[in-house]
Amino acid sequence: GLLLTFGAALVIEETIRLVWGSNEKQLALPAAISGAFMIGDLIYSKYRFFASGFAVLMILALWLFLEKTPYGAIIKAGAHDSEMVRALGINLRRLRLLVFGIGVALAAIAGVVMAPIWGIRPHVGVDAVVPAFLIIVLGGVGSLWGAVIAGLLVGMVVGLTGAYASEWSLMSMYLLFIAVVTFRSRGLFGKKSVLDV
User: Where residue 167 falls among pLDDT bands split at 50, 70, 90?
Assistant: First the structure.
């Protein structure tokens, strides 16, 4: 499923390139949150601050959905034991479509928010998918907070490496991934039962 989805994304991206070209397009920042502000001696982009805050709100909304709603409980149960969920009379196909739809919606929202920072180009999705995949595995498949912590960890490692040795900034993400998976194959917070399904 994952490889099929990734392959479909590559086909769509290549189609976009052929139809509209590969030139990058820039979106103007909203006037209300453009510019920068200072905290002490540090300068912060207003829009990046907004994007970070929005990401926190989306993470909390997703957590509340998974932890506090019946649909969230069913999704988590399906991830751990799909046969049990099927035995309870729940349509697994519809459940998987629901999860896929939620994922697509979250990706679309993230794309809209990040477009003014990254720009719009046919292959921007690949630039996001590979780090996202590494972060999910690094944090532990099935662990929302594991992914959050892994994302922060990867961001700090890449940022610090870029500040002192920019040519190693991208490589540092892969080295961190290899180091963690070598000693903990399930990731930082991975649950064995999720990977065994």
Answer: confident
